[in-house]
């Protein structure tokens, strides 16, 4: 029998119950914020969003409220709602939180992951090379999130897994923003993407071999020196 997580992950576009529709609105706005289709600082008009995403105002407001809780949009009285800005402090804070939580998750996953969970971690990387070659940023973001969520799920700690999802949403858009920086071009991004994919595979191998110390170290490699990359990107614009 499919779990509730499996059911939610398998939402079809023809399933129009209010709960699923609101979830789909949230996901679509979230993705557009992450990939920059809704730019940092952009003012978000609820009526325009309703027309753009095909939902009612109630669903749009609920999605924006959820995104505000995650720190992805800013809501101000008499001013309205806007996409949260990108700044070095935000990048550093989210990165430090991810280091604390995800390194611990990697160690727990090496201890507790089932064979099926290890297979699920590896499966998230299957489409990585195609996404890199196509420079498909939305696909790259989705792949990276799926990988980190799979590792967190394999930790068998649901509270940590929920934190990982929220933190990944916050940092994914910083990562994609850095990839679009002034020094970036398709060849460089492709080379960097292949190296990053290999680091992800190294983490999957460490978890599969039940090596807690190595898994924690490999997660640090995967996370990299994100604030420094972001600083270079912002200073180059």
Describe the structure.
- The protein is mainly alpha-helical.
- It has two domains: 73 residues, Winged helix-like DNA-binding domain superfamily/Winged helix DNA-binding domain (Arc Repressor Mutant, subunit A), CATH 1.10.10; 148 residues, GntR ligand-binding domain-like (Four Helix Bundle (Hemerythrin (Met), subunit A)), CATH 1.20.120.530.
- Helices cover 72% and strands 4% of the residues.
- Helix 3 packs across helix 4, helix 6 packs antiparallel against helix 8 and helix 9 packs parallel to helix 12.
- It is globular, with a radius of gyration of 18 Å.
- The N terminus is likely disordered.
Tag the structure with descriptive keywords:
mainly alpha; Arc Repressor Mutant, subunit A; Four Helix Bundle (Hemerythrin (Met), subunit A); 3-stranded antiparallel β-sheet
Overall pLDDT: 84
What is the class of the largest domain in the CATH system? Answer: Mainly Alpha
Q: What is the domain tally?
A: 2
- The assigned CATH architecture of the largest domain is Up-down Bundle
The count of DSSP E runs of length 2 or more, i.e. the number of strands, is 3
Give the full name of the CATH homologous superfamily of the largest domain. GntR ligand-binding domain-like
Helix content: over 70%
Global shape: globular
* Fraction in beta strands: under 5%
Order of helices and strands: HHEHHEEHHHHHHHH
**CA gyration radius, whole angstroms:** 18 Å
Low-confidence stretches: 1-17, 183-188
From the structure provided, what is the oligomeric state, counting identical versus distinct chains?
single chain
Quote the CATH topology of the largest domain. Answer: Four Helix Bundle (Hemerythrin (Met), subunit A)
- The N- to C-terminal Cα distance equals 51 Å
Strand order in the largest sheet: 1-3-2
Number of helices: 12
| Structure class | mainly alpha
Major sheet? 3 strands, antiparallel
């Amino acid at each position: 029998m499919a779990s509730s997580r499996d059911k939610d992950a398998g939402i079809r576009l023809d399933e129009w119950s209010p709960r699923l529709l609101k979830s789909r609105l949230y996901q679509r706005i979230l993705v557009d914020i992450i990939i920059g289709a809704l730019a940092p600082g952009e003012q978000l008009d609820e009526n325009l969003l309703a027309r753009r995403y095909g939902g009612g105002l109630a669903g749009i407001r609920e999605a924006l409220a959820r995104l505000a809780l995650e720190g992805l949009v800013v809501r101000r009285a008499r001013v309205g709602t806007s996409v949260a800005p990108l700044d070095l402090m935000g990048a550093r804070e989210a990165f430090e939180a991810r280091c604390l939580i995800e390194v611990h998750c990697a160690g727990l996953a090496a201890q507790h992951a089932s064979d099926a969970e290890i297979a699920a971690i590896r499966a998230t990387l299957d489409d990585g090379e195609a996404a890199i070659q196509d420079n498909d940023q939305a696909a790259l973001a989705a792949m990276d999130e799926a990988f980190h969520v799979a590792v967190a799920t394999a930790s068998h700690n649901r509270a940590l897994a929920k934190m990982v999802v929220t933190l990944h949403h916050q940092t994914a858009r910083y990562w994609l923003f850095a990839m679009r920086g002034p020094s970036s071009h398709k060849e460089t991004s492709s080379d960097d993407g292949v190296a990053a994919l290999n680091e992800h595979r190294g983490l999957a191998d460490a978890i599969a071999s039940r090596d807690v110390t190595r898994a924690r170290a490999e997660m640090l490699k995967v996370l990299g020196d994100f604030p420094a990359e972001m600083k270079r990107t912002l200073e180059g614009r």
